[in-house]
Amino acid sequence: MTDEHTSIGELCRHAGEILNTAPGPLKRVRVQAGDMSVELEWPGTVAVQAGDPGAPQADGAAAGTVAAESRDSPDAIVIEAPLVGTFYRAISPESSAFVEVGDTVEAGQQVAIIEAMKLMNAVHADRPGRVVEVLVKNGDPVEYGESLFVLEPHDPDSGH
After folding, report:
1. Single pTM value for the model
2. What is the DSSP string of 76-142?
């Protein structure tokens, strides 16, 4: 067996291990032989929820109050971690964050990365909205279903 076959077999074995321990079904699996790549994608989880009392608050009393009110709003959109891993707000330490508080995001837009077993998994917004709170610090570990961002609904047709 060649080194390429051994390596792709190793990648597939690791992907299988992730699948066996991953919560929920996958949205997409991609294995590529040239330059070796295994890509696993879970459906982005966006849910309407009441506030998460264990989540960190924004700095400043007024900002904390506004963010808490936004999170408690019945219209709040909460983007949750689709898997267990390490949360990153940017593609690299030198890069700008995918999104900042105040940014408007579109459905399907990447908002973060979660690293799991040396694989980078994109986190996407399922619905459009304006970022009102980032609940997790860059580099922090996250659990499946943990709240990552709070968005307020955004209707692209109305401009609001």
Report:
1. 0.55
2. -EEEE-SSSEEEESSSSTTSPPS--TT-EE-TT-EEEEEEETTEEEEEE-SS-EEEEEE-S-TT-EE
